[in-house]
Every structure is written in structure tokens, then in C-alpha cells.
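R.M. (postdoc): so does anyone remember the format we settled on? I'll just put the C-alpha cells first.
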């Protein structure tokens, strides 16, 4: 099963005519903070994370979650150390439970993590990303971000539409299909190649 996922990624990296160099997704913000200010067991360190902000009205952000679940998560969730982390306002616990039940109909949601915080916690954490994207008044954004195992924000420095691209708009299915999926493939393959290299050097 894992081979079925790995082979298309490796093939993609060799044969795609995309804008990125083989094997490396640019670091845009190094050393984003860990989730230590929140009461959670989830962590970003040593994980490849898709980070999102659902804010204080989860019901209104269901489209974000469903699009991600269908277009990104279900294709990659079996990769080791790959996770989705959604930052949510306190008081949204029941709305999240309802959302999880709906997502679970479509895929195994074992790697979806929901982290709760108040306004100050969420704003402070978000500011560490240092992006050109602003949180809405309800502490949400339709954009999600790729955080690597070393807590760095990855993205594009030469995107054909935006130049520097910090995040991916989950409202746009085309963007998820044509840009985010490609970049997730690249970062997963990057770590896969590094692991193979390390294992080979040990032998």
C-alpha cells in the first residue's frame, strides 16, 4: 500500500515540469514556534504538518475542512509523521466533534488534530508565521500552511501568480489540485529521500 503512494511521488519529482527544483521546497519562515502555549498533546516538531485556523465559528469553516480532507488529506494520511493541525477557538468543542464525525465518513481521520486556544494565544501563535495573510476577526483564514519537521514554514518563492506564496487557499479546489498537492508531494519526497540516504550511509 505504501509503495503505491511513494512511487507516484518519486516519478512526479523526476518528470514534472513544475517551477520547483527537485527535492526541495523553499523555507519562508524558519523556526515557527511550537504549540506549547496551548493545552494540547499535539506537537509540530518532527512532523510534517498542514496547519490551519478554523477560529471561532467552525460551522462556517466546514468547507475548508471538507476540501482539505478530499483533495489533500485522503491522498497522503498514511505517510508516517504527516498530520493536519487545526487551531480552533475555545468554546468550539462540540462543533469540532460534529465536524470530525462528518469527516470520518470520507476518510480515516486519525491524523487530524484540533488545538483550542483563546484570542491572544491564537493571534500570538499566528504572528510567528510572518506571512502576508491576515486572520479574520473570528480568528480564521481559508489558507493553510505547510510546516516541516524543523518547525519551518515552507512555500513558494517564485509562484506564477503570487511571487512568494505562504499558504494555500482551501476555497479554491484548483489551487489545492494544482499547487498544494504538488508541494505536499515535494516535501514528503524530500524527507523520504533524506531517510533513504541516511539509511544507506549507515550500512
Amino acid at each position: 500500500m505504501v509503495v503505491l503512494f511513494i512511487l507516484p511521488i518519486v516519478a512526479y519529482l523526476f518528470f514534472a515540469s513544475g517551477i520547483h527544483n527537485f527535492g526541495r521546497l523553499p523555507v519562508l519562515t524558519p523556526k515557527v514556534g511550537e504549540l506549547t502555549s496551548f493545552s494540547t498533546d499535539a506537537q509540530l516538531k518532527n512532523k510534517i504538518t498542514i496547519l490551519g485556523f478554523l477560529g471561532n465559528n467552525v460551522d462556517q469553516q466546514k468547507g475548508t475542512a471538507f476540501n482539505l480532507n478530499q483533495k489533500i488529506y485522503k491522498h497522503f494520511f498514511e505517510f508516517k509523521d504527516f498530520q493536519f493541525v487545526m487551531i480552533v477557538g475555545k468554546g468550539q468543542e462540540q462543533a469540532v466533534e460534529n465536524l470530525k464525525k462528518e469527516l470520518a465518513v470520507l476518510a480515516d481521520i486519525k491524523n487530524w488534530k484540533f488545538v483550542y486556544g483563546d484570542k491572544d494565544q491564537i493571534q500570538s501563535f499566528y504572528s510567528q508565521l510572518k506571512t502576508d495573510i491576515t486572520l479574520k476577526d473570528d480568528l480564521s483564514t481559508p489558507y493553510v500552511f505547510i510546516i516541516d519537521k524543523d518547525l519551518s514554514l515552507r512555500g513558494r518563492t517564485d509562484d506564477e501568480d503570487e511571487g512568494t506564496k505562504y499558504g494555500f487557499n482551501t476555497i479554491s479546489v484548483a489551487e489545492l489540485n494544482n499547487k498544494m498537492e504538488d508541494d505536499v508531494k515535494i516535501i514528503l519526497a524530500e524527507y523520504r529521500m533524506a531517510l533513504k540516504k541516511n539509511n544507506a550511509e549507515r550500512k
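R.M.: ...and that's the designed sequence above, right after the C-alpha cells. Also worth knowing: The domain at 2-202 is CATH 3.40.30.10 (Glutaredoxin). The helical segments are 2-15, 62-76, 93-104, 119-127, 173-202.
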